[in-house]
Predict the 3D structure of the following.
Amino acid sequence: MTPLIINTTVNDHQVAKLAALAIALHLAEAVLPSPLPGVKPGIANIVTLYALHRYGIGTAAWVSLLRVFAAGLLFGNFLSPTFILSLSGALASLAMLWLSTRLPAKYFGAVSHSVLAAFAHIAGQLLVVWLWLIPHSGLLYLVPLFAAAALLFGTLNGLVTATLLKKDIA
């Protein structure tokens, strides 16, 4: 029997390294106490933002989606509501990152991309919660809290990403 040979590219290896780092950060964040249920800093998104700015939206999408699927499998919540919420947030933030990369780079960089993606992530999750789990207008009372968290953590993650991009690591 002939052995199966998989031809990989340098880009494949880069995606694998970045996805592994994002998964490790996601796992590390999971053991940290959360200030409020559903509010996390999203430090793995720093890797996605780095991938976006260094390698483009395709690599960023691979890194983000591999992280979501791997975390779902590692945490044992694959295809659960938690997984669906994570995936919906990731897809919404990737869509926002794709749109925001079309804005003038002179005015929009890592910090603004991070903040926009954080808002999209929260909006995507809240939309799924409202459409699927809790179709009640009382959910709107949580929007200011989640928006404040998105602004804070989006800004912090964007600043970290901007610093990493200036140092030109990896």
